[in-house]
Amino acid sequence: MGFVTDTEGFDCFLRELKKSYRVYAPVKLKGRGRFSDTDSVRYGQVNTIEEIEFSTKSDFSPKEVLLPITQTLFYFTEDSVKEPNTDDRKILLFLRSCDIHAIKRIDEIYLRNGSEDVYYKKLRDKVKFVLMECEHSFENCFCCSMGCNTTREYDLFVRYKDHKVFVECRDKSFEACFKEVKQCDVNPRFVKSNEVKVNIPENIDESIFSNSMWKEYSARCISCGRCNLVCGTCTCFSMQDIFYRDNKKTGERRRVWASCQVDGYTDIAGGHSFRQDKGDRMRFKVMHKIYDFKKRFGYNMCVGCGRCDDACSEYISFSNCVNKLNEAVR
């Protein structure tokens, strides 16, 4: 069912909704970009539709709403453990098709990989999706090659144009909010092609692990981990126990994002460490995204959002790497 309203009408909907929902969407952060006098776009809570950045791809993925960068799991004292208080409101999340596919990958890892992660599930069960369409392919995107350019897994679709808001409502629980609004036909438009094309290799042999192509990244990569942090499907974390200064026997345990590209990630007892070479780390990341995950779950982990290429300070292109891998396999 489709509806059309104006900016004020949709803002009224958001105000009413915020009584029981937290609304997250990409927002523009002035002066917070990679370079001086540039902006950044990442996820934050919004109150009006004009705050939402529809025309620009977000620098960070929406996973930071479901997997906070730093998340306190519990507080502890000498004789007790307590989980932190949580916001009981549901979550309405504005995101694009590739990001909806990315959250499906996170669900596989945290919910359907042998056991359920209770902390992730607690947030995930609250989420409803609002689809944002891409009128054109953004720089470095290759979602079409990964089959993630279209989706029907959303509760609302919103298009904002010329101060008019067009809404497709696929969740009946929202229909009452639009009962006084004019109905119309609304269908999302999806990107059908990207400038960047990626060919995923088939029949990968283990001999590719020692191919000389990985040596290029030993020289170029600086192990900053930015590609992992902006990625919508990277899910690795480390645990930190924080002890308070005023009482060394009390503190909290936190889950913090980690990166397979940074020093220390593979450190183990006895002072040993795997994949110290940066080329080996790049190989591990690439093979996980387009080979290992698929062997386990039946489809590729990468969704083609291109954020890793956008973020890399050394201009290393993941899409180019996969195409080089395809040539090497052939």
From TrEMBL:
The keyword Iron applies. The keyword Metal-binding applies. GO terms for molecular function: iron-sulfur cluster binding; metal ion binding. PROSITE patterns: 4FE4S_FER_1, 4FE4S_FER_2. Keywords: Iron, Iron-sulfur, Metal-binding. It comes from the Bacteria. This is Anaerobic sulfite reductase subunit A. The lineage of its organism: Bacteria, Bacillati, Bacillota, Clostridia, Eubacteriales.
